[in-house]
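Section 3.1: Structural characterization of target chains.
Under the original work plan, the team committed to producing a structural model for every single-chain target entering the pipeline before any wet-lab resources were allocated. The record below documents one such target. The sequence was received from the expression subgroup and is listed exactly as submitted; it comprises 64 residues.
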Amino acid sequence: MGRKAKLKHLRKQQQANPTADTQNSREVEADPTHFVDELKHQGYDLKVSDRCPEIPEKIVNPQI
């Protein structure tokens, strides 16, 4: 059996027998605010963002 035939066979098996993992992933994709909960869980706050560091105005020449 060739590579494409194996992939086709695997796809047919997955469509015929959906597992709990694929059903859970569909539930996660259905919730549009799930990523916000994930970011909060990781410690990020979307309302308070960190500013980027200030870029110096003058050009510093390297010392040799």
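The CA atoms of residues 31 and 40 lie 15 Å apart.
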